[in-house]
Sequence to fold (185 residues):
Amino acid sequence: MDARTARLCGVDPARLDVPHEDVDLDSRFARAARPVLDDSTERMAGSGICLAVTDRLGRVLWSWGPDRARRRRLDELALLEGFLIDEETAGTNGLGTALEAGRVVTVRGEEHFKEAFHPFACVVAPVHDPVTGRPLGGVNITCRASQARRRTSFHSAPWPSRPPLAVASSCPTAGPGEVLARSAR
Fold:
């Protein structure tokens, strides 16, 4: 969504006023994504990377930060369970734009419409049902914009005892630190 359209929709870039809605934490996607992401967070401690997972509408199901300061920042940015971060409410942003486009999207710094998101870079992969192709949600990886690599890679990779996983690596990590998301079957 371009800035003009966002303004016509009533989105104010200076205010972080996104709605909160009930979410289904028992959906197939939420149940499948949570353990995979939980496994990833241990390797990412100290990395500076934050994660968020949304449902197909852009409502946050889960978020994680590697330390208290980053978790507090997620709170300040409304990247918490139930907050809606789609393009109609937040303008251009990683989560909403990837879900709208149906493809991996990287949004860095001032490419975000909301000024509160300017210090960050996000790479977001929409997750689709492997059978029907319908969108299930999105997986967001966030780091400081100054730490983001210029190139974003996204590819499928196998993981022991799990089906193929989507692996995103745009932000620097400690150790292997790749972020994994599995589509629900």
Notes: The chain is about 25% helix and 30% strand. Confidence is low (pLDDT under 50) at residues 151-185. The longest helix spans residues 28-44. The first strand starts at residue 50 and ends at 55.
